[in-house]
Amino acid sequence: MIQNVWLIPALPLAAFFINGLLGRRWLHRWTGVIASAAVGLSALLAIGVFLEVQGGGHESTTVTLYEWIGVGDFHINVAALVDPLSSVMLLVVTVVSFLIFVYSNAYMEHDHGFYRFFTWLSLFVFAMLILVMADNYLLMFVGWEGVGLCSYLLIGFWFERPEPYVAAKKAFVMNRIGDWGYTIGMITTFLVFGSMQFTEVFEHVDIATEANLTLICLAFFIGASGKSAQLPLHSWLPDAMEGPTPVSALIHAATMVTAGVYLVARSMPLFEAAGPSLAVVGAVGAVTAIFAATIALVQFDIKRVMAYSTVSQLGYMFLALGVGAPVAAIFHLATHAFFKALLFLGSGSVIHGLGGEQDMRKMGGLRRKLPVTYWTMLVAGGALAALPPLAGFWSKDEIVAAAFLGGYPVLWAIGILTAVLTAFYVTRAMWLTFHGEPRDHHLYDHAHESPAVMTLPLVALAVGTAVLGIAIGFPPEAGFIHHFLGPVFEHEGAAEHAPEAATILALAAVSVAAGVLGILIGLSMYVRHRPDPAAVSRATGPFYRLLVNKYFIDELYDRRIVEALRAAFGAMWAFDIHIIDGLANRFGWLAAVGGSGLRRAQTGIVGNYALTIVAGLLVILVAYGGYAAGVFTR
Amino acid sequence: MAVPLGAFIAVSAVLFFIGTAGVLVRRNAVVILMSVELMLNATNLALVAFSRRFASIDERGSVFVVFIFVVAAAEVAVGLAIILSAYRNRPTVDVDEIRQMKG
Amino acid sequence: MDILGAAFFALLTIGTIGAGVGVVLANRITTSALLMAFTFLNVAGMFVLLGAETVAMFQVLIYVGAITVLILYGVMFTPQSPRPYGLFFQTQKYWAALFVVPIAIFVALVAFEFRDSGAASGSGGDLVPLATSIFGDFAFPFEVASVLLLAAMVGAIVLVKRDEE
Fold first, then answer.
1. Engineered SS bond to A395: which of A257, A332, B79, C125, CB 3.0-4.6 Å?
2. B97 found inside a domain
3. pLDDT at A493
4. Do B24 and A611 touch (CB under 8 A)?
């Protein structure tokens, strides 16, 4: 099975071609079926690969397809690195994608761009799979760019309205800034190590100076920030909610945005050897986590709440990487994929049931009308708030515990505080949407539960969310996933002193308490209006406005960066028009003037022409005479 | 005292000069053609003079002269044909008035 | 009897140069044409003086015969009203003078340079060597020359043809 690992991305690619070429005219609704079937088969193959890796002693295999580039010293193969880390990623990507594909068949049913949706989505899955399977940085970059492209295409899916394509442009540009970082990291890697292949680079980490390594790691981290929406390249993610909800679920929650985390996790040998870079990763992750959580507290669009929540949870993953717990980061990546996808799909179900309404201020009391959606989202919300025994608890707890045990109390405190905020805003979102009295009776009356094609994936994801944590993460530090992924990140004495059970329990208790505290505050404010949310927002006045306007970061970027760029572009345009075009025009003018000047020699009078001949004769005579007389010497 | 070669060359040169002046100065196209014939004769004279002076070495100058006869005859015929055509267009053979090729 | 040769040469020279000047400066065009014929005749005489009788014969046949007749035909078919003397020279006469004067200087130089060379006329006639060369070494150019004449003839006819309606 491992040898056939290339089938896994090949199937979605085939679906892309078939849907793209035949979808509009002939396949119509069948595009959804074809795409879903392709991804479903890939998921089965991924399970097979996973089992084989697990059964084969957690070794890493390289499956080479062909040599892509061979120029001088520069060799890049199209090859897949199949090891525990990539097999986990393969599994997560394909399984979650499959469920979302199935869901989309019903969600996008009435859209006239149905075939186009599944075409791009299939392409996306292909690119993402390339990304996680690649065995070298360049091939990974191909997938990296591919997912960026598909993100742009899918955010701007409803391009007839201006907001989606503006958001798509913004996403692409910010991604691009990250890509610049990735490129610098990639090229520096080649210059320092002579290769871009993971195994080769990691084996020879010691030949590089710490300065070089720090440069490489920071450059890669810029790339990761762009892709995973960390500060300061985060603001594209909330705007990306202009895309259809399945897109938000798949790309901006479960898969593409995790590519940055995967990149850093994969490059851990480099990061660990480059002292300050891990600290930067951890700090940025922690700050992003709490920053985004504060904004999510006051958003009214249900998808925006989830978007900021995603940014915040990604911050957690980077925090985990920064404190030296990559297994915890990947664990959280997997659980987050499930419960965040569920949250998004559930939101989509609500939006679908309300005929397109996304503002929570108009919702309320929907649990009676959309029961399945309600219960599944409740499970997901609980996981997000890190309530045991749901999946989110195990992974998030492990992260904050690692921060504490690794000797980073400040990061641990930030993590705990963010957990309180997270629990609060998810409770708020749940309450505003599903509980209380309906605020818009017209919407409420027409609300309906979604069809089975949509609710079944919700249920499947809910089951996953519920059991995944325990299944693979228990007991803490010694569960299945630790044994599975451990060897990937193991090198020197990573077998540090195992913390005592008491410490672990104490830390877990604090995490749970934080979550419960957040929920209690939320319930108190929204059920009993103590304190009343409206009063609170009035009382905190300017601070509240700051949060609602997302700290005015977009405005800051617009004024400082975009305006400055526009001015620069204006100058360049002027240069192009006046100097470059001017130069070309001058040459033309010169030719014209020269031509009309020389034209005066054509007098049309034959005598003049004869005179010219005689003048030439004179020149010849002079030359000959000069030679003969010795005046000119040959 | 036989006539020296130089004398023949001098005559040839002066005749050539006269022909050139005629080409450049006269207005009538037929007269210009006649002046061209003068130039050709001048060259013929020079060629034959040299050829006969060095006849023991190389007689080929005279051969060249024969060919010049041929070409001159052809040229006069065609030249006159052209003048006649132009005359038919506008009844003038004044070269200063035929300037449609200006520019 | 070289005095005779020199005298003939002087006579022929005066004839050639004088007639040449007359061609260029004559007022009536027919005068120019006839003086041109006279120039040709004198040049033929010079050929005889040089001992190139065959060439002289060709000169008389072709130049004095054919070409003069052609020129006279041309004169006949292009009648022009008599013109004032001011329209005699082209408008570019001053420029022409500017270029022609240096050539005159050259001519003078050349003329004086050959002052001391040896006798011009060689021994024997020129018919045999001429015939041997033309029909021997230069047979091909000879044939090409006939083709050239044919082309010129055709070309001349085509040029003067009237378009028949």
1. A332
2. no
3. 37
4. yes
Tens digit of each residue's pLDDT (9 = 90 or more) over A447-487: 778 788 888 888 888 888 888 877 776 666 666 777 777 77
Residue ranges and CATH numbers for the domains of chain C are 2-91 (1.20.120.1200)
The closest alpha carbon to C80, from A610, B31, B20, belongs to B31
Domain span at residue B47 reads 5-89
Q: How are beta strands A74-82 and A61-71 bridged, if at all?
A: antiparallel
Conformation bin of residue B90: beta by default, left when phi > 0, alpha when psi is -120 to 50: beta
Whether residue A162 lies within 8 A of chain B, CB to CB, comes out as: no
Give the gap in angstroms from C-alpha B30 to the nearest C-alpha of chain A.
13
Instruction: Among A134-143, A490-499, A603-612, A615-624, name the most confident range.
Output: A134-143
A601, burial (CB in 10 Å: exposed 0-12, middle 13-18, buried 19+): exposed
DSSP string of chain C, one letter each residue:
-HHHHHHHHHHHHHHHHHHHHHHHH-SSHHHHHHHHHHHHHHHHHHHHHHT-HHHHHHIIIIIIIIIHHHHHHHHHHS------GGGTB-TTHHHHHHHHHHHHHHHHHHHHHGGG--B---SS-SHHHHHHIIIIITHHHHHHHHHHHHHHHHHHHHHH-----
- Residue B99 placed within a domain: no
Is residue B103 situated within a structural domain?
A: no
Q: pLDDT per residue over A1-10, tens digit each? A: 677 788 888 9
CB atoms within 10 A of CB C163: 4
* Cβ contact C5:C42 at 8 Å: no
Whole-number Å distance between alpha carbons of A250 and A562: 30
Q: What is the mean pLDDT of chain A?
A: 85
Q: Percentage of chain A surpassing pLDDT 70?
A: 96
Neighbours of A620 (CB within 10 A): 9
Complex prediction ipTM: 0.90
The pLDDT tens digits for A516-526 are 888 888 888 87
- The reported pLDDT for the residue numbered B97 is 80
What tokens were used for A249? 């679920």
Model pLDDT for residues A566-578, shown as the tens digit of each residue: 888 988 888 888 8
Quote the number of domains for chain B: 1
The residues in C 98-127 lying below 8 A from A, measured between CB atoms, are: 99-100, 102-103, 106, 109
Tokens of A210: 């710490």
DSSP character string of A371-405: HHHHHHHHHHHHHHTT-TTSHHHHHHHHHHHHHHH
Res A110: pLDDT: 82
Number of H helices, E strands in chain A: 28, 2
CATH number, domain with residue B13: 1.10.287.3510
Chain B residues closer than 8 Å to A610 by CB = 23-24, 32
The structure tokens listed for A395 are 């992974």
The most confident of the ranges A279-283, C60-64, C93-97 is C60-64
Partner-chain contact C99 A621, CB within 8 Å: no
Residue A31 falls in which region: left (phi positive, over 0), alpha (psi -120 to 50) or beta: alpha
Partner A contacted by C92 (CB < 8 A) = yes
B32 neighbourhood in chain A, CB within 8 Å: 610
Contacts of C145 (CB under 8 A, 6+ apart): B67, B70, B71
H or E segment and range at residue A258: none
Subunits with 3+ C-beta pairs closer than 8 A to A: B, C
What is the three-class DSSP state of A302?
A: helix
**Domain assignment present for B13:** yes
Q: Does pTM top 0.95 for this prediction? A: no
Cβ atoms A127, A147 nearer than 8 A: yes
Q: What is the pLDDT of residues C118-155, one digit of tens each?
A: 666 666 677 888 888 889 889 999 999 999 999 999 99
* Residue A168 DSSP SS3: helix
What pairs with residue A136 in β-bridges?
A: A197
- Which pLDDT value is given to residue A557? 79
Contacting residues for C54 by C-beta, under 8 A, at least 6 apart: B62, C125, C126, C127, C130
